[in-house]
Design goal:
heterodimer, A: mainly alpha, globular, B: 271 residues, 71% helix
Chain lengths: 262, 271
């Protein structure tokens, strides 16, 4: 990583935590969806199981989903989008820094700002709800690797969604659509195991699945070591592929830049 | 008497400005058809996946806390219509925080129209077209599937109208918090939507008493979709129908009051 990447990531990190009250409130409220999920699935599963998840396993699944979604949604996607919508992207084009790399640095910096909140929330949830432990020490390590791979993966997906601002006037609707796709196809809304086969196949063909189902499957031992390594390889491949796709789309969309009618 | 006439005239003027601004935004939309279709499709996405979620869920369970599939569709559909309506009717309030930070409230104060009206109509969220359209489809599909007839339509229309007013007012009120809590993002309004999308698409019986009290009486989001649908489907008695109009009135007063207080404390940027 070059010093310029680190500098941009640091600036983004500081910008994220500059408005401390907003940041504290986002930390406090971040766990709401986890609590709602626990209430719903506790009622549905009871003493039985659904899709191979008993209550202990489901608690672990939901807490992993909370951790990964807190990280995935914490980047500076709005800053990226506003640069395109406001036309500041024209200034970026004059700078001797690759646009995508610069935005990646900023995005990862924003995600890092959410790590204390995610860690604190996850620790509290584990202590309070006592979910199932990892299947093995190796599964725990591989789960951590999977969570780390979410950083480049989240940037790839968010960057692609932000690029739509070249052809739209607002980002809010795109953000909702992207977040919903992520929540559904990652398995955060409902585990993939409960979906019909064709929908499972669709989900596995998309990158979103690696945000919740992959780390949770590894953690709970629903896949063996070989399967876990395969999932991690697919996760890494998606991160690389999204980077390349982003670059290709950027090269086409940047031709559409018009600033103040010029 | 003169005071009443003056107030009525001011309300007519504000309404006129609101309507003209909204029409101007709609005319602007027609200049960007590709943008419209991208955003409207994005709005449909949440509904389609919520539809899929409920369908997948109810393939595994017969009911959730006594609520059946079609009733739950109505619950989600009504929430979507209300949330989508805010994008169409007052999407600009989401920019309150940014306007405050950049001092862009300044010139709106100098213009002869209520600031909240000018801010609310500074954008239209085109995803709202998709949300409202597909949300109504979900409500209609759930309505028919739940075996409800035409006799309940007046209650449904009342619930729908109140849902839109409450949602717009609560979002405006929570965006007004950014007059004091400085930041680009309206975190409280986001939290409200998050609360609604997580809890209000499910029967309240699933949640602890604290959640019921909060959503009924503190941040009364239950009156947006849960109470009207519960009355329509017989999960609550018809006495509860008093709630949505009262909540709508209280929410509007809260939003107007908070925005007015916010403007009093507004000190432009850099001071």
């Amino acid at each position: 990583m070059a010093s310029v990447d680190l500098a941009l990531a640091t600036i983004s990190f500081k910008r994220k935590i500059a408005y401390k009250t907003t940041w504290i409130f986002s930390v406090l409220f971040g766990g709401w969806s986890l609590l709602a999920g626990l209430a719903v699935w506790s009622n549905l599963i009871g003493d039985g199981e659904m899709g191979g998840y008993d209550w202990q396993a489901m608690k672990a699944y939901l807490i992993i989903g909370f951790l990964t979604s807190t990280l995935a949604w914490a980047g500076s996607d709005w800053d990226m989008a506003n640069r395109i919508l406001d036309g500041l992207v024209a200034v970026d084009l004059t700078k001797p820094v690759d646009f995508q790399r610069a935005r990646a640095g900023e995005y990862i910096g924003g995600m890092v700002a959410s790590v204390p909140a995610a860690a604190l929330g996850t620790t509290a949830a584990v202590l309070i709800f006592r979910p199932a432990p990892p299947d093995s020490a190796l599964a725990a390590v591989l789960t951590v690797v999977s969570v780390l791979l979410i950083f480049p993966l989240a940037f790839g997906i968010n960057y692609l969604s932000v690029l739509t601002c070249f052809v739209t006037q607002r980002f809010l609707g795109i953000q909702w659509a992207r977040d919903t796709m992520l929540a559904f196809f990652s398995g955060m809304m409902v585990p993939l195991a409960l979906m019909p086969v064709w929908l499972q196949a669709t989900a596995w063909a998309l990158p979103f699945v690696h945000f919740t189902t992959t780390p949770a499957s590894i953690y709970l031992g629903r896949v063996g070591t070989a399967g876990a390594l395969g999932l991690l390889a697919a996760q890494a491949a998606w991160a690389a592929a999204l980077w390349v796709i982003g670059r290709l789309i950027w090269s086409q969309l940047v031709k559409k830049v018009t600033v103040h009618g010029g | 008497m003169a005071d009443t006439t003056l107030r009525a005239s001011a309300a007519r003027h504000a309404g006129g400005v609101y309507w003209r601004s909204l029409v101007a935004q709609i005319r602007a939309i027609t200049e960007y058809p590709a943008d419209f279709w991208v955003m409207a499709s994005a709005g449909v996405m949440w509904n389609v996946l919520q539809f899929a979620f409920l369908t997948v869920l109810f393939a595994a369970v017969p009911d959730v806390a006594g609520w059946r599939y079609h009733e739950m569709l109505m619950l989600s559909g009504l929430l979507t219509v209300a949330a989508g309506s805010t994008a169409l009717l007052c999407d600009g309030v989401w920019s309150t925080g940014t306007y405050v930070l950049k001092g862009e409230i300044d010139y709106r104060i100098t213009r002869p129209a209520p600031v909240v009206v000018q801010v609310a109509t500074s954008h239209i969220g085109m995803q709202g077209f998709g949300e409202v359209g597909f949300g109504l489809v979900m409500v209609a599909y759930g309505w028919i599937g739940a075996g409800m007839g035409l006799a309940a339509v007046p209650v449904g229309v009342l619930g729908l109208a109140c849902a839109i007013v409450i949602e717009c007012a609560l979002i405006t009120a929570l965006c007004a918090v950014n007059f004091w809590l400085k930041g680009n993002n309206s975190i409280f309004a986001f939290v409200l939507l998050d609360l609604q999308h997580n809890a209000m698409t499910m029967p309240l019986a699933l949640f602890p008493a604290a959640v019921k009290i909060v959503t009924m009486f503190v941040v009364p989001v239950a009156f947006v979709n849960f109470v009207p649908v519960a009355v329509l489907t017989g999960h609550l008695t018809s006495w509860w129908l008093v709630g949505p109009p009262l909540t709508a009135a209280a929410s509007v007063l809260l939003a107007a009051g908070l925005y007015r207080l916010g403007l009093r404390s507004y000190d432009s940027s850099g001071h």
